[in-house]
Write a structure and sequence with these properties.
2 domains; mainly alpha; 68% helix
């Protein structure tokens, strides 16, 4: 029987294909193909640094005024420094097995952000220190906890920021009382020289805000943080009683009666929020009475 060259070539290609399929089947059965695929890097992807920082920034922006872009940038710098796997994930990619673990982790973080579960970032010190990364991140927990803590520390309200927010809140509540309770026109307050809100902040700066900054009254750093981390690696902050009191006080000031505000009867939770509560009360009283508005006679006297 005679075979043409074309027939022979076709037969050879068929045998080669069958051999290749057979080899692939054998290798797959032995797990070799899966191992090879796992060893090949996946495409670059969103990192846990990005996920945690977006979650943290969203929570802080809900509770206070901040520059979201600057906060996110600072957080990313801190978290990437804590774990360089983030940069690798974002720029080069990692093996497929690890990529899947990281993706599950970031998806879980995104779910927490969508629910606005903010205790790990804006809760009180106990809530912050007892918060854990999402369960789906357990597989990468060795490095993920470092990213989690770095994100919390980098986005936390600083001592100076909290000092300034406290004074700003007291001043805002005071001017709100002037207009709502004592019927002073906002235009009158704005036309004062200097305007009422500016005058208030200046008086607070001189005797309350500056002292708060200098004393680091609301500091989040602590020499004993390392000791606390021996108990739990998730400890992010020491429990600063003045800081916790200040945060509780800010909430209470939203509902304080105007008469109590200017008479120096600050809510009980506010007592531990100031180096000298009496000085704070005097500044509020002096500010109000220094405006020389007849509507304020009930709190300043005739």
């Amino acid at each position: 029987m005679n075979f043409s060259l074309t027939t022979f070539t076709s037969h050879k290609r068929l045998m080669t294909l069958i051999s290749a399929v057979t080899l692939t089947t054998i290798l797959s059965a032995c797990g070799v193909v899966d191992s090879i695929e796992d060893a090949v890097n996946a495409d670059p992807q969103r990192s846990t640094c990005q996920a945690y920082c977006e979650w943290a920034t969203a929570c802080h922006s809900q509770s206070r005024t901040l520059d979201e872009e600057a906060t996110l940038t600072a957080c990313l710098e801190s978290t990437r420094a804590a774990n360089d796997d983030c940069t690798t994930l974002e720029t080069e990619g990692v093996n497929r097995a690890s990529a899947e673990l990281y993706q599950s982790c970031t998806e879980a973080i995104d779910a927490e952000r969508a629910m606005m579960n903010c205790d790990p970032f804006t809760g009180n010190a106990v809530a912050v220190n007892t918060s854990l990364p999402p369960a789906a991140c357990v597989a990468v927990i060795g490095s993920d906890s470092e990213v989690f803590n770095a994100a919390r520390i980098a986005t936390a309200e600083s001592n100076d920021e909290l000092c300034e927010r406290m004074s700003r809140t007291l001043c805002n509540r005071s001017t709100q009382c002037f207009t709502d309770e004592y019927n002073i026109s906002q235009n009158i307050l704005d036309e004062l020289t200097p305007p009422a809100d500016e005058r208030c902040l200046t008086q607070f700066e001189e005797s309350v805000t500056s002292a708060c900054r200098n004393d680091e009254l609301y500091s989040i750093s602590s020499d004993n943080r390392e000791k606390l981390q021996e108990i739990s690696e998730n400890v992010a902050f020491n429990i600063n009683a003045s800081r916790e009191a200040a945060r509780a006080c800010l909430n209470a000031l939203e509902e304080i009666a105007c008469g109590e505000l200017f008479s120096g009867e600050l809510p009980p939770v506010c007592v531990g929020a100031f180096s000298d509560p009496a000085t704070t009360a005097n500044v509020l009283s002096n500010f109000a009475c220094g405006l020389d508005q007849p509507e304020l006679e009930p709190i300043c006297g005739g």
